[in-house]
Amino acid sequence: MTGDDERFLRRAIELAAEARAGGNPPFGSLLAGPDGGILAEERNTSVTDADITAHPELKLARWAARELDRATAAATTMYTSCRPCGMCAGAIERSGLGRVVYALSPEQLASLKSPGATPVVFPFSEEGPALFDEARVPVQGYY
Ligand SMILES: [Zn+2]
């Protein structure tokens, strides 16, 4: 990790504090482009937007996929106050962003929560695959 990495991470931590001050969960992220400039910043707004997907990493991954060409996205780094959750990690993979640098690990985050804190992720049951002959029809030939 370089001095620039630490500087950008400190900004992500500031954004996390701003999210909390605004009534949202304490997470913030930014994108630093190939030339080292900040391209975009986001804060968690899942409470004020009443949107469980309003994580800063997801918003930035969507922005990157929309606004950056592939080469620029691959050379862009996301700095984020906590390691991205599974939802955001999936979006980052699809965005083409080349690198993620985070401050808190999931284990460190868990250690900072109260013992009785409400979980934010719930297990669910899953069944499948099923109906292959029908389900393949709209897919076959698309890719
Ligand atoms: Zn997330």
Average pLDDT reading: 97
Small molecules held by this entry: zinc ion
Q: What would you call the structural class?
A: alpha+beta
Name of the CATH class: Alpha Beta
CATH architecture: 3-Layer(aba) Sandwich
User: Into how many domains do the coordinates divide?
Assistant: 1
Largest beta sheet: what is the strand line-up?
A: 2-1-3-4
CATH superfamily: Cytidine Deaminase, domain 2
Number of β-strand runs: 4
What are the secondary-structure elements, in order, as H or E?
HEEHHEHEHH
Which runs of at least 5 residues are low in confidence (pLDDT < 50)?
none
Rg result: 18 Å
* Shape, principal axes of CA atoms: globular
Query: What is the name of the CATH topology?
Result: Cytidine Deaminase, domain 2
Largest sheet: 4 strands, mixed
Share in β-strands: 15-25%
> Helix share of residues?
25-40%
Q: How far apart, in Å, are the first and last alpha carbons?
A: 39 Å
Protein name: tRNA(Arg) A34 adenosine deaminase TadA
GO molecular function: catalytic activity
Organism: Streptosporangium sandarakinum
Brief summary of the model shown:
Residues 3-114 form the CMP/dCMP-type deaminase domain. The protein is an alpha+beta fold and 143 residues long.
Polypeptide structure, described:
With 143 residues, the chain is an alpha+beta fold. Helices cover 39% and strands 16% of the residues. The chain has one domain: Cytidine Deaminase, domain 2 (3-Layer(aba) Sandwich). It has helices spanning 3-21, 56-67, 70-74, 86-95, 106-111, 132-135, and strands spanning 28-32, 38-43, 77-82, 99-104. Strand 1 (28-32) and strand 2 (38-43) form a beta hairpin. The relative contact order is 0.14. The mean pLDDT is 97. Bound molecules: zinc ion (ZN). Zinc ion binds next to helix 2 and helix 4.
